[in-house]
Design brief:
CATH topology of the largest domain: GMP Synthetase, Chain A, domain 3
Strand order of the largest sheet: 1-2-3
Shape: globular
CATH class of the largest domain: Alpha Beta
CATH architecture of the largest domain: 2-Layer Sandwich
Order of helices and strands: HHEEEHEEHHE
Structural class: alpha+beta
Strand content: 25-35%
CATH superfamily of the largest domain: K homology (KH) domain
Number of domains: 3
Distance between the termini: 37 Å
Number of strands: 6
Largest sheet: 3 strands, antiparallel
């Protein structure tokens, strides 16, 4: 955690302590007033910063720039939808986001529990539907580099794989078929 971020969090904690003490000492309606204060603090604490700026380049291509880092991705329409298929398509990026998210969430859990998943690969296959054109299924194969994980570590891996925010953001109609393989 950066020093600036820590300082902001500490400042909010100190502010909450002060407000709580004020409510306790001076408010006849301590519980109600503080409850309203905390709800409004939570509502104001949402992250509404721009994340990505996307520019249409012509010829069915876009350039997406990650605002915080300046990293850029170019997309191209797929061959089966009037494009050249020379870059990721937008739906490829959704499948990529899912695979990257699963690995990141499992990686966080592994790090928190003192083991690593270095070398783990996720291969994602997207299945497209028509009328309307959309992703109807993601087939995800997670391959771990070895079979030396304890029973507890495997449980952590398999439970954390279900916590992916990308998956939790998808329409429930998108079928997700996930297979976890541990190499020998």
């Amino acid at each position: 955690m950066t020093g600036i971020k820590f300082a902001k969090i500490q400042k909010k904690i100190d502010f909450i302590k002060i407000k709580t003490e004020f409510c306790r000492r001076y408010s006849r309606n301590y519980i109600g007033e503080c409850r309203i204060f905390f709800v409004s603090l939570q509502k104001n604490n949402t992250n509404k910063m721009e994340t990505v700026k996307t520019t249409y380049l012509g010829n069915l291509r876009t350039e997406a720039e990650h605002i915080a880092s300046g990293a850029k991705i170019i997309t191209d329409a797929p061959v089966d939808n009037h494009g050249k298929g020379e870059y990721f398509s937008p739906t490829d990026l959704l499948a990529t986001a899912y695979g990257s998210c699963v690995l990141t969430i499992i990686g966080i859990a592994a790090q928190n529990h003192g083991f690593d998943i270095d070398g783990t690969e996720v291969k994602t296959t997207k299945v497209m539907g028509t009328d309307p054109r959309r992703i109807v299924e993601l087939v995800v194969d997670c391959t771990f580099p070895h079979n030396k994980y304890s029973e507890k570590e495997r449980a952590i891996i398999e439970l954390s794989a279900k916590q992916c925010p990308v998956a939790n953001s998808l329409d429930p109609a998108v079928k997700i078929t996930k297979r976890i393989v541990y190499k020998n």
